[in-house]
Amino acid sequence: MRIGLFTDTYRPSINGIVFVVETLKKHLEEQGHEVYIFCPAKTIRPSHDLEFADDNIVRFPSIKGAFFDDYDTSIFFAPRVVQQIRELKLDVVHVFTPSQVGLVGVQAAVKNETPFIMQHSTDLYEFVEHYPVVLPGILALIGIVFPFTVKLQGQDVREILKLYRPRRGVTQWNKDIIEKAITILYSKADAVIGLSRKSVEQLESWQDEEKYSYKVELLPNGVDALPKPTAAELKAFKAQHGITDSDEVFGFVGRIAAEKNLDILLPVIEKVAKNRPNAKLVFVGDFEYRETLEEKARASNASDRIVFTGALPRDELGVAYAAMDVFVFPSLKDTQGWVLHEAAHAGLPIVIIDKKLSEVVHDGVNGLYANNSASDVAKKVELLLADTAKRTEFSKESKRIARIYSEQRQIKDLIKLYERVVEKRNPAGPRRIRQMRWQAARIKEKAARVWRQR
Description:
Blueprint: E1 2-6, H1 16-30, E2 34-40, E3 57-60, E4 62-68, E5 71-74, H2 79-88, E6 92-95, H3 100-111, E7 116-120, H4 124-127, H5 135-145, H6 154-162, H7 170-187, E8 191-194, H8 197-206, E9 216-218, H9 231-240, E10 248-253, H10 265-275, E11 279-284, H11 290-298, E12 306-310, H12 318-322, E13 326-329, H13 338-345, E14 350-352, E15 367-369, H14 374-386, H15 388-404, H16 407-425, H17 429-453
Parallel strand pairs: 1-2, 1-6, 2-3, 6-7, 7-8, 8-9, 10-11, 10-13, 11-12, 13-14, 14-15
Antiparallel strand pairs: 4-5
Helix pairs in contact: 1-16, 5-7, 10-14, 13-15, 16-17
C-alpha cells in the first residue's frame, strides 16, 4: 500500500505523536509498504539539508505554533504539493492532527476519493483549559480552512455558524467549537481510531445519531521496550543526579507541561517523605512549564528530595526508568500515555489517576488507581514503596501486559484496518487488497535478500 501520514508535529519536535508517526513509518516499511509523511518544516524555507531529511517526508513551510507550542502553524500550501499528493496515488490517508497539515490530508483524500482515517491523538477539548488564547485561531481554522477541506452539507454549515455566537467563558466556547468541529470531521472519515477507552467514550458521547455518527476503533499505539542500561550507565545516572542506592525513587517521564497535572506531585513528595525519609521524586523531561515547576519545587519543604534531569534522547530513557521504583502518571488530559507502556516494559509498578487512560495499567495487578488528590496519590506511592513483594509481583505483570501491545502486534491490527477501509471504499477492493499484499511481500523479501547479502 501507499500510505500518507499527515501530522502537524514532527521532528525535530519531541512528543508522543512524533514517536508514533516515526515508529509507524519504520514498521510499515518493514512490512513492504510505501510510506510518506507530510508535516511542518519548522521554517518558512524548507530544504533537503534538514537534519531529518528524507525523500518520503514532505515538509510544508511553517512558523512557530499559533495554537499550541508543539504544533507549528503551516502556511503556503503550494498547488504543486497538492498535485504531488495526487500523483502519489495514495491508497490510505492517516491523519494524526486536525490542524492545517491534517486538514490538507483530509482535503487530498476527499478530492482524490482516497479512504482516510482520523486518529484521535490529542485531547484538544481538555487542552484549551490551559491555552484559552487559541480561540481566534480555532475560529479561523474552523471558519476558513475547514470549509475547503471536506464537502460540507447545509447542516454542517449551519452547525459551524452557531459556533461563532459568543458565549459565557472563553474556555467553554473553545470546548464547544472543538467538540462540534471534531464530530463533523470524524463523521466524514472512513474510520476513527481511539487510543484508549477514555477517548472512545468521549468521542461516542459527542455524537448525535440523527446528525453525526461514526464507529470508533479502540487501537492503542504499539510500544516496544527501550534498551536496558548497563550497570555502569545506571550508576553514572544516579551519581549525576544525586540518587543513592538507598533512595526510594518515584517519578514521571514526559513533557513538563502545565496540562500534565504535575503540580500535584510536589505535595505528594512532601507527604511521602514524612514517613519514608529516603523517598525522592524525579522529573525526566523538558518543556515550557519546567521553569515554573522548578520554582515551585524550590519553595517546597521537600525541595532536597526533588530532582529534574532535563530531557533525554529516547534511546537513553531506559536508564531513567531503571533508576525508579515506582512510576507515577498524574495527567488527566492524555489520550494514551506512551510513557506508560515504556514504564511497564521496564517492569515498574504504576500509579495513575486517569483510570480509563491506558490498557497497560490494571488496578491491583500491575498498578494502582488514585484519586486526583495529593493525599491519595501519596498513599498509593507509599504503599508500593513499603512493599517489596508487591513491587516484584507488579513488575512481572507490567512486563507481561506491555508485551501484549508490542509495535509488531499493533501494526498488524492497523494494517487490517487500512485494508478494511480500502476494500469497503473500492468496488475492486478484494482484488486490490490481494495485489497490495503481493507487492508488499515482494518488497519485504527483496529487502530481506539485500540485508542477508550485507
